[in-house]
């Protein structure tokens, strides 16, 4: 069995999904999923992305390119961000997707878990950048005060 097949099966089981559950969640037939999990069929990239999103892992993790799954969505964090922007974030189990709706509007927009994860990463990277800039500025001010004495 190849690493991708192993990781799909292990992650599916760890998440508590039966093959039937997983087939329903991914809209991929149970037979095809079994073939993916045994490594007897090559997985196309579009299917790998669907499987990764359903398992809340990165495609790179499933492929064995990353040793750890650092992909987990922090739902509370993401919800808070959307609330601050006057949006409501919900999950659509039928389509295995999130959707967001501006408060007071009737129509929402679909958004994949991988996109939400990228939003989270972008926010964290920007926050880290700003904190480093503040820290550098404070260190420069400290150096200037020491030099002035």
Question: How many H/I helical runs?
Answer: 7
- SSE order in H/E notation? HHHHHHEEEH
Helical content stands at: 55-70%
Kindly provide the radius of gyration, computed on alpha-carbon positions and rounded to a whole number of angstroms.
21 Å
Low-confidence stretches: none
Q: What form results from the Cα inertia axes?
A: flat
Oligomer classification = single chain
Sheet with most strands:
3 strands, antiparallel
What is the spatial order of strands in the main beta sheet?
Answer: 1-2-3
Query: What is the number of beta strands?
Result: 3
Structural class: mainly alpha
Tally of individual domains: 2
User: Beta fraction of the residues?
Assistant: 5-15%
Mean pLDDT: 84
Give the termini separation: 69 Å
How are the SSEs placed, and which strands pair?
Elements: H1 3-14, H2 19-26, H3 30-38, H4 45-55, H5 59-63, H6 75-84, E1 87-92, E2 97-102, E3 109-111, H7 113-148
Antiparallel strand pairs: 1-2, 2-3
Describe this structure in words.
With 149 residues, this protein is mostly helical. The chain has two domains: 3-63, lambda repressor-like DNA-binding domains (434 Repressor (Amino-terminal Domain), Orthogonal Bundle), CATH 1.10.260.40; 75-148, no CATH class. Helix content is 61%, strand content 10%. A hairpin with a 6-residue loop joins strand 2 and strand 3 (109-111). It is flat, with a radius of gyration of 21 Å. The relative contact order is 0.09.
């Amino acid at each position: 069995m190849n690493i991708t097949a192993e990781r799909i099966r292990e992650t599916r089981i760890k998440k508590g999904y039966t093959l039937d559950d997983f087939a329903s969640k991914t809209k991929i037939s149970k037979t095809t999923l079994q073939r993916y999990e045994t490594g007897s069929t090559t997985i196309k990239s579009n299917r790998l992305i669907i499987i990764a999103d359903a398992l809340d892992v990165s495609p790179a993790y499933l492929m064995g390119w990353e040793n750890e799954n650092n992909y987990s969505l922090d739902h509370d964090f993401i919800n808070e961000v959307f609330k601050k922007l006057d949006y409501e974030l919900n999950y659509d189990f039928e389509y295995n997707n999130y959707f967001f709706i501006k408060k007071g509007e009737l129509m929402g927009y679909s958004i994949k878990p991988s996109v939400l994860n990228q939003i989270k990463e972008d926010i964290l990277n920007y926050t880290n950048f700003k904190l480093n800039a503040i820290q550098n500025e404070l260190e420069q001010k400290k150096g200037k005060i020491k030099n002035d004495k």
